[in-house]
C-alpha cells in the first residue's frame, strides 16, 4: 500500500503540461514567418537589381578581354542560381496558410528547414568560389593599368570580405534563422499535441 501511495504522490507531483494559447502561438509563428519572408523578399529584389546591373554592364560596356566578359557571365550565372534558391524558399514559406491546415503548414516548415540547411551547406561555398572566380576574371582587365598596391588592396579586400562573410556572418545568420524556425516548429508541434 505504501508503494501505491508513493506512486500516486509521484504521479500527482508531475508538472502539468502547459497548454499554449492557440491565438498567441499562431500570432508568434505568423510574425516569425513574416520576418523571414520579408528578408527573402528584399533579398530577391536586391538580387534582381544586381543581375540587371551586371547584365547591363556585360552587354553595354566594351571590354577588350574575353576574360572580363566570362567573369561577368560567371557572376551572372552564380547570382541567377542564388536567385532561384531564394525564390524557391520564399514560395515554400508562402505556399500554405497557417490557419487553413496547420499540419500541412508544419510539414512545409519542416521541409523548408531541412531543405535550407542542406542546400545552404554546400551551395554557399560553391557560390563564394564561383563569385571569386568571376570577380578575379573581371578584375584582370579592370585593374590592368592600376598600380600594384591598388591591385593588391582590391584583391586583399575582396578576399577578406569573402572570408568574413563565410566564417563570421554566415554561421551567425544561419544559427539565428535556425533558432527561429526551431522555436516556431516546436510551438506548432506542442499546439498540435494539445489537440491530439
TrEMBL record:
<feature type="transmembrane region" description="Helical">
    <location>
        <begin position="152"/>
        <end position="169"/>
    </location>
</feature>
<feature type="transmembrane region" description="Helical">
    <location>
        <begin position="119"/>
        <end position="140"/>
    </location>
</feature>
<keyword id="KW-0812">Transmembrane</keyword>
<keyword id="KW-1133">Transmembrane helix</keyword>
<keyword id="KW-0472">Membrane</keyword>
<feature type="transmembrane region" description="Helical">
    <location>
        <begin position="40"/>
        <end position="63"/>
    </location>
</feature>
<feature type="transmembrane region" description="Helical">
    <location>
        <begin position="69"/>
        <end position="87"/>
    </location>
</feature>
<protein>
    <recommendedName>
        <fullName>Holin-X, holin superfamily III</fullName>
    </recommendedName>
</protein>
